[in-house]
Here is the input.
Amino acid sequence: MRVTQMMLGSMLTADLQSVQTQMLQVQQELSSGHRIIQPSNDPVGTQNVLVWQNAIDQNAQYQRNAQNAVGWLQSTDSALQSAIGLVQQVRTLAVSTSAGTLTTAEYQAISDQVTSLLNSLVAVANTKMGDHYLFNGDQTTIAPFTQSGTSVTFDGTSGNQMREVFPGQSVQANIGGSVFSSAFSAISTMLGYLASPSTAAQVTQTVGGTASALQLLDAALNGLINADGQAGAQLEQAQNAQSLLTNLGQSLQQLQAGTLDANLPKTVVSLQELQVSYQSALAVGAKLIQPTLANYLP
Here is the structure.
């Protein structure tokens, strides 16, 4: 079979187009940093990339859950520390009344201080993180405590705030608000005994009542300290999960990159080789079919 000029031109054009296509793909790899531009480039690799991406997305959600739990528990720990400090101040005032040597005015001054501390404790028990109350179980848009004079009522729920940090594994992000109830009851009891004693009998009653309130305050204080210890343990669990998830996320990113990302030095070399091949093909074609080469190039 005789090879005509037209056949040579067609073959050369096809070869040049093939090289151009390869050059375009390599240039896209360089610009995007990915060796898989479309699924047809590597069907199996594309499937693996999708699997890794799904795992990365799930891990990112677990990281957000863990971060949310850490934020809640850090705020909870801070609130409980404040509550412990306030109750300790009330306890100090209770001890100061036990001698029975104070005047009526001094008893009233202590009563005013205790009332102020009670108000502060209610504010702590109704602490919010953003728009959500920390100590109202799963009803976080409703204040858990209401105050009427020296009486404080717990209107909250006992539900737990759970955050899933691994498949089938969750951490508790809250502490129940009922932990404050004994403190409010003890303070209310103390204020009842501090109601302006003016006679020896009333002073004796106040001293005895305050001693009784002191026992209640100690029990309430222990309850708050235990709750803060529980919050600390939950916080450590959430932080450990957060650290593990961060490391896992980095590993997943590396696995996906191993499949998806282009080998840039190798890609640059490939582009240079293709450019040389393209220029060589043009030069050879120009010598073979000088009169008609332009008619066949795109």
In short: Residues 293-297 have pLDDT under 50 and may be disordered.
